[in-house]
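Narrative of activities, Objective 1.

The group set out to show that a structural description can be obtained from nothing but a protein's sequence at a throughput compatible with the screening campaign. Below is one input-output pair from the validation batch, recorded exactly as produced.
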Amino acid sequence: MEHPTGRRVRVGAMTGLLMIAAVLAVPASSAEAAARPRCGGLRATIVGTAGDDVLRGTRGKDVIVGRGGNDRIDGRGGADVVCAGSGNDRVTVKGRRSRVRGGPGEDRLRADGPQAVLSGDQGDDVLTAGAGGVALLGGDGDDEITGADVPGRQDGGAGNDLILLGDGNDVAVHGGPGSDRIFGGGGNDRMDGDDDVDECHGGAGTDTCHGGAPGGPENTAADPDFCAPDAEVHISCRIPAVPERWKLAIEGTSNYTNGTNYDTEISWVVTAYVEQYFKQDGRTWYLTAASGLSGSWTGTGRNGECTIEGSGDVVDGDLSVTMALDELSGTYDLQWSGPSVRTPGSISCPWGTSSYSMTNRAADTAKYQTWDTDDPAHPLTGSRTVTPDGPDGGLVVSYTWRLEPAADPS
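Output recorded for this entry:
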C-alpha cells in the first residue's frame, strides 16, 4: 500500500504486532488480579507489604489487606473491610458496618462508624467503639475493650480481659474464658464473666453481674467470682462468709425523771465485741466476748435541793449483748443492757457532800434490722430512742450503734 506522501507502508505487519501485544497483555492483567489477597471473602483493593505501611482508604467501600509489619490503616468513609495481618497494627474505620480483623500481634482497633465489627484475633489488643452498635471481639489474648455510650456488643474472648462499658444499657457483655474484669457504665448493664475467676462492677444504673463458671447459679462463700456491691443483682458470685466476730461501738444517753423532784442523765461511749456462739435454723447467734470491753460514762442529776454528778470507766462485764443474724429474712436483732455504773459519784446538798451511787437501767432489743445476705460482712448501723419502762415511764434511752467485722484477737 502506498501512503499519500508516497511512502510504502506494511499494514499487515503492523497489525500483526499490535495483535500479539494485546494477546500478551491480557494474561498478565488476569494473573495480577488473581494474585491479589482476599479479606472477608472479598478481593483486596488496597494491599500493603511485608513491612511497615501507611494505608489510606477512599470515601467509598475499600477492602484493605495490610500483610506483615506494623501498619497504620485509615479506612476513611464507606463500609470498609480490613485485614491488618501480622504485626502491631493501628486501624481506624469510620464507615457504617465496617469490619476489621487485627490478626496476630498487639493491635489497636477503633470504629467511629456505627454497627461496625472489630475482631482483635491473637495478641493483647485494644478495641474501642466511638459509635453505637459496635461489636468488639477481643479474641485470644489479654485485651482491653472500651464500649460507647450507645450499646453494642463486647466479648473478651480467651484471655484475661478488661472491659469498660459506656453509659448505655449494655446487655451483650461477655468476658469469655480467662480471669476478666468488667466495669459497667451509667446504664442498666448485664455482665457475664463466663469461665474462670472474674470480677465485675456495676457503676450507675441497675446492673446484673453473672460470675459464670466455676460455681453454680447460687451465690456462695466458696464461689471465686467477685461481684461488687454496686451491681444490684448477683448471680453465681462469691459472698463473704458470715463473720465469726463483730466489733460493737455503742453510745447513748439515758434520762430518768420521777416527774417531780428527781432526775438524772447518764451518757456513755462503749466498745465491745460479740463472738459467734451457735447456728440454728438459718440464724447465727452471737454473745458478748469475755474480754475487750472498754469505754466510759458521765452522769449528772438532781434530787430536790441536791445536785448529783459522777463519771467512770466501763470494764469487762459491764455490758451484756446478744445478736442474731437471720439468713432467711435478711434481718438481725440486737439486744443489749448496760453499761453498769460501778464507780460511786457524789451528791452535793446545802448541808454537805457525800458519796452517791447512780443507776443506769438502759436496755433495748432492736429487732428486724436490715442485713444484706449478699454482703454479710458489711458494717451495720442504726439508732433508736426507746422507753424501757413503757410510754408512761420516766426512763428515755437514745442511742446509736455500729457493728463491723473484727479479727480474732488471737
